[in-house]
Amino acid sequence: xxxxxxxxxxxxxxxxxxxxxxxxxxxxxxxxxxxxxxxxxxxxxxxxxxxxxxxxxxxxxxxxxxxxxxxxxxxxxxxxxxxxxxxxxxxxxxxxxxxxxxxxxxxx
Amino acid sequence: xxxxxxxxxxxxxxxxxxxxxxxxxxxxxxxxxxxxxxxxxxxxxxxxxxxxxxxxxxxxxxxxxxxxxxxxxxxxxxxxxxxxxxxxxxxxxxxxxxxxxxxxxxxxxxxxxxxxxx
Lengths: 108, 118
Hints:
- By secondary structure, chain A is an all-beta fold.
- Helix content of chain A is about 0%, strand content about 45%.
- In chain B, strands 2, 4, 5, 6, 9, 10 and 11 form a seven-stranded mixed β-sheet that branches.
- Chain B is globular.
- Chains A and B meet through strand 7 and strand 8 of A and strand 5 and strand 10 of B.
C-alpha cells in the first residue's frame, strides 16, 4: 500500500512560521494537496498541485515540493490557523488516493 | 458554484448494509471524478473509493470487498454502499469531487455522521 507520512503535531507561537512536512515515494510523480480541518467542519482545500493557493486562501499559506517531500508553510501564524492539516495525493498510477495521518497545529 | 450534499440513514445495525447518496449541484456529474471519504471519531481521513469516466471505479484495498460506488447521471447523484458494517465503520462520511489527472480533492460535502450500533 502507499503511504504519506506527516508529523502528528506542530506547535508555534503567534506571528511565527509553521511548517508541516508530508513524505511519500509517489510524491515524485503525483501532486500533493493540503486541507485544513477545524473541529466539527469538513476539510477545506488550502493548497493544490503542491504550490497553488485557491482563491480566498490567505497569502500566508504556501506550499513547496522537493523530491519525495512536500511542505506546507504558514508565515505569520494567527490564532485562527489552529486546526488539523492533512496532505493528500495518489499512488504513482492514480489508482489509489491517500491521505497523510494529519498534523495538529497548535498556536501557543 | 459547485455543491455536494450527503444524505442517508444516520444509524445502521451491525452486519447490515450502509447506503448513502451524494447530490451534486452546479456541475455535470459526467465532467469529473467523484469520491467518498470517511473519518472515524477522533481519527484521520480515510479514502474509500472513487468513480471515474465510463463507470469505472477504484476502491481502497482494505474496503474493496464491501464497497460499491455508483453514479446516477439522470439525477446528478452518486452513491456509496458498504456491506456487513461493524462498529469500526462508525464515522463521518464525506462525498467530494476529484480533479481528473491530478487526483486532488477540490470540493467537499459537509459530511454526514453514521453510527453503527445495535
